[in-house]
């Protein structure tokens, strides 16, 4: 596989979606061929699963069912979008991937770490990112941003944005523990800064890994 796989992670409102889009634009200016995708929702089937997973009306979804829906989305996503792009030599930027399941369904929802790890491996076919950028900031700030963004867009907060602060704290801690266990893959960035400052750091880190 000749492509480059980079993922963005972090709690709600951390700025990962913005940074992924800015990185795509910066890399394309340098002549790179870039695919920007996301989980859930990186395929037509995934888009339907995303609707279920983020719908505030599905609050009764149990943790294991939630995890299995994410893994179904991931299996389709890897097979239909990510792996073909990597095999074609493209750069794939993905807004959330397997680490999100470890942090959200594992650390925060309480699903067994072994089960999450096993299902992640099955759904992804063992495909691991070259680099994972974790945008970290206090959960109070992050969730406040996410809810404000929803209101500005004229939308209601989604199922995860409505969770209590303790849930988001557990997700953040889960991410930080992951980063500590895999320091060669993860880069933790302070997301509580101006967008342009974060963008500069993201670009420098990625270019150091893939070349100018």
In short:
This protein is α/β, with parallel strands linked by helices.
Q: What does this molecule look like?
A:
The protein has a single domain (4-210), classed as P-loop containing nucleotide triphosphate hydrolases (Rossmann fold, 3-Layer(aba) Sandwich). The protein contains eight helices and five strands, in the order E-H-E-H-H-E-H-H-E-H-H-E-H. It has 212 residues and is α/β, with parallel strands linked by helices. The model has no long low-confidence stretch (mean pLDDT 94). The chain has helices at residues 16-29, 44-54, 63-87, 98-108, 113-124, 139-152, 165-181, 195-210; strands at 4-9, 34-38, 91-95, 131-136, 186-190. It has a five-stranded parallel β-sheet, sandwiched between helices.
Give the strand order, joined by hyphens, for the main sheet: 2-3-1-4-5
Report the strand count. Answer: 5
Give the topology string: H per helix, E per strand: EHEHHEHHEHHEH
Total count of helical runs of at least 4 residues: 8
Unreliably modeled segments: none
Q: How many domains make up the 3D coordinates?
A: 1
Strand content: 5-15%
CATH architecture: 3-Layer(aba) Sandwich
Which topology does CATH recognise?
Rossmann fold
Structural class: alpha/beta
CATH superfamily: P-loop containing nucleotide triphosphate hydrolases
Proportion of helical residues:
55-70%
Evaluate the radius of gyration.
Answer: 16 Å
Kindly state the mean pLDDT as a whole number?
94
**What is the C-level CATH assignment?**
Alpha Beta
- Main β-sheet, in a few words? 5 strands, parallel
Distance between the termini: 20 Å
